[in-house]
Design goal:
Layout (H helix, E strand, L loop, with lengths): L1 H21 L24 H11 L3 H8 L7 H6 L3 H16 L1 H10 L1
Length: 112
């Protein structure tokens, strides 16, 4: 189950950073389903979120491979880091996403 949390932690970090830090709890519901809305980004994909997700999952991969039996060993640091996979992914992805989207936060507060 830690393997599953290694993916869910980064997703939660991105969602929480977006809602509380970037959007400051303001959600435009009509833009969620509209082409050209505030949440469309590039063809419906937010490149900053994708990079944050990949970077947040990456430190947990070596520990996951050892736990799953795919490899026999990995550096001890990564194996012990995997024990805290959800928290590591949450902090890394959330922090990276908030940093990468900092211009969006300024733009949304000045245009609202």
């Amino acid at each position: 189950l830690i393997g599953y949390s290694a993916l869910l932690g980064p997703i939660a970090g991105i969602l929480i950073a977006d809602y509380f830090i970037i959007r400051r709890t303001e959600l435009r519901a009509s833009d969620l389903f509209r082409r050209g809305g505030a949440y469309e980004y590039r063809g419906g994909w937010n490149p900053v979120a994708l990079v944050a997700l990949i970077v947040g999952v990456a430190p947990n991969v070596p520990g996951f491979l050892v736990a799953a039996g795919a490899v026999e060993s990995a550096p001890a640091f990564f194996v012990s880091l995997y024990t805290y996979a959800w928290f590591v992914g949450f902090l890394v992805s959330g922090g990276l996403y908030a940093f990468g989207m900092r211009r969006e936060r300024v733009a949304s507060t000045t245009s609202a």
